Amino acid sequence: MQKKELNDLIARFREGKCTEEEEALVKYWLHHLNQEGDSGLTEDDLLNAGETMWNNIKPARELPKNHSPWYAAAAAVLLLAVSFGLYFYKNNSHIQSGRLISENIAPGGNKAVLTLANGKQVILNSAANGKIAEQLGVSISKTADGLLVCTAVSDNRDTKNNTSQYNTITTPKGGQYQINLPDGSRVWLNAASSLRFPSSFSGKERRVELKGEGYFEVNPVRGQAAGIPFIVSCSAQEVKVLGTHFNINSYSDETAVKTTLLEGSVLVHTAAQTPGAPGAVKLVPGQQAVLSNNALKVERADVESVVAWKNGYFRFNDESLESIMRKVSRWYDVQVVFENEDLKNEPLAGVVTRFASVSELLKKMELTGRVKFEIHENTIKVLEN
User: Fold this and answer.
1) Is the CATH code 3.55.50.30 the one for domain 312-384?
2) Is the pLDDT confidence value at 366 over 50?
3) For 166-184, what is the mean pLDDT?
4) DSSP class per residue in 196-207
5) How many helices (H) and strands (E) does the chain have?
6) In 78, 117, 134, 254, which residue has its Cα 20 to 30 A from 351's Cα atom?
7) CB neighbours (10 Å) of residue 204?
8) Long-range CB contacts (within 8 A, 24+) of 145-150
9) What is the DSSP code string of 61-82?
């Protein structure tokens, strides 16, 4: 029956008979799969992969680790199934309807405030597209698809007595934003985060300051600027790099600062250390530096889970419910209360789009049979099942 319903979904998509929600999600994942790794997958591929997937679903604790296009396709089909909830409600009579109060709390989106060096604040989600400001030879503009672009219109690198002015972009709970820095580097900011950056990069380093979580694609500068390191400073550590892709999670309510490398190499050290001091660590792709109690250690990273937020979904791989609900709290701008402290350690696994309402997400989590949720206005109460 599950396979038949999946077939029906794809058939409706081909015939143009999907609901707006179904069509948007199918198109999103077709686009996502072809964008990530140029897989060339079509809806036929999704359908064929789904047949294998339904026969081979394993418990959450045995999620596969490979990254082949066929696994990605199967994961996408599973996401479609979970996102729509077409299959579970019919076959899980133990789910108590009405236990969860259905509140229409929408997911987050592109929301941020830009604070310019002169103190002027621009609410980016309501600002008109086009040029916002120009300072020290850098034009700051907003694009139609919600991107902040800083473009150098003159080279101030060799100007004497040039003092960079610093701007700050801040996302609230329920917000995210992407920014192109003056050197061409790109940064994705997660909810409840901020990035402080200069109007132009000059001198012997390119330094920015991060609070919260950000994904970085650093531009390896060329020509006269070649070899100038890019440095991300957090409250407790610094990350030094010439050109690479990495993610930093430095939320103050997390137990550790985690730096995860996807491409290139980075050098991570505590704020009290110098880059070459004992205890500093150099990462290779797939590794994660974990800073806790002023000590750094290197671990193997679940890269897909780390960057899932940037790619538009939640991915939990045997993650504690407490950690999951912190992410839910930031993205949906809600408060979370646990009925029983022991529930915080409950591990859950799954994949679901970040663009569902909070009640939809919680209903999917309820299907594990382990927890229940109640929503009262802007507060989610986590209950024992």
Assistant:
1) yes
2) yes
3) 95
4) EEESS--TT-EE
5) 8, 24
6) 254
7) 8
8) 146/110, 146/177, 146/178, 147/178, 147/179, 147/180, 148/112, 148/114, 148/124, 148/177, 148/178, 148/179, 148/180, 149/179, 149/180, 150/179, 150/180, 150/181, 150/182, 150/197, 150/199
9) GG------HHHHHHHHHHHHHH
Three-class secondary structure of residue 209 per DSSP: strand
Q: How far is CA 111 from the centre of its chain?
A: 14
Q: At what angle do helices 20-35 and 2-15 cross, to 10 degrees?
A: 90
Structure letter (DSSP) for residue 330: H
Domain residue ranges in the chain: 2-91, 109-304, 312-384
CATH of domain 109-304: 2.60.120.1440
Q: pLDDT tens, 11-47?
A: 777 777 777 656 655 655 554 454 444 444 454 555 4
Is 284 or 30 the better-scoring residue by pLDDT?
284
Side chain identity at residue 139, one-letter code? S
Own/partner contacts of 152-155, CB < 8 Å, gap of 24 or more, are 152/182, 152/200
- Give me the residues paired with residue 373 across strands: 382
- Can you state the percent helix, strand and coil of the chain, rounding each to 5? 25, 35, 40
Q: Do domains 109-304 and 312-384 have the same CATH topology?
A: no
pTM of the model: 0.74
Max Cα–Cα distance, the chain, nearest Å: 73
Return d(Cα 144, Cα 112) in angstroms, integer.
Answer: 15
4: tokens are 């038949």
List residues bridging with 250 in a β-sheet.
212
